[in-house]
Amino acid sequence: MRGIVVGLGGWGSSWTRVIRDGGWDIAAWVDVNPAALERAVRDLGAEPGSCYAALDEALGSADADAAFIFTPPDKGRARDIIAAMDAGLHVLADKPLTTSPDEMAAILEAHLRSNVKLMIGQNYRWYPGSELMRRTIEADELGRLGYMTVYYHMAENMRGHHIVEMPHGLVLGMCVHHLDIMRFAIGAEPDTIWAKTWNPPWSWTKADACAECVMTFPGSVTANYFAGWAAHYGETDWYGRWHLEFEHGALLTDGVKSSIIRDGQQTEIDGQEVAIPGGRGRHPESSSGSAIDIPTYTRRGVLREFTSAIEEDRTPECSIEDNVKTLQMAFGIIEAAKREE
Question: Which of 129, 202, 294, 341 could be disulfide-bonded to 253 (CB atoms 3.0-4.6 Å)?
Fold first, then answer.
């Protein structure tokens, strides 16, 4: 199959390698920045004649089955998603879908009138820890889930990145990953959300760089969630640290390495032992025994799901109908935090 890649910054360029490795041909390369197109020609092997400054130009010239959209969410992503769907192309878009509830509704409306697949790249579902949490909850392996504590804390500094200026960059640009994992693992959306956000004086973002939330899910399950980009000590990885307490034990995970505690005994579980969502493979190791780069691996899982959904003519995991529920959680945090100001 052939695809159009829209947005050739660092993330879009790295995704392009995953797309090509996944068996797709790139029919067109789109970026408003001429320097990005020059880099695509120089570093990614793009043909100059297949490079365009706007998606509309590519849609009128290139024969493609799908569009892969990695433009900033607050700078035209919704417009490009709708244009691609209106042209009859399937779409795989980076998260967040958008930063605006009105744009979210417009994208959903455009999708409902189309006959194409629209999948959002929530690749954290493809971490082994996500499937382990979901499986443990569904199978009632440790009894009823009571509460979870999720802690994400990094000193990440992305000065020069669009997320510096992005409204609610932490919540919409990063927390959507963790919120999507919660929904995926618990199998439900929260009934209530309390939240507070703030920005330390040394923050590199214009929007608040820290968020604290308490959410209640059906069955009186409580999620205590902290996320921050202002750490000097005790950093987590991007996935964060997850601690779930059940009636008869506990589950700890950082996304790849996990532990289950039952009857005072702790069992270590590495990623190889946990099936990835939908049974589409397992967390691999290289021939040398070292772990494969997990961000690349999870994006490959997203691409396989997108490709299979097109070939099998079915709704993909992380479809827009599913993903708007994650985005509504993020908007709920933003609104709840405003009430605390």
Answer: 129
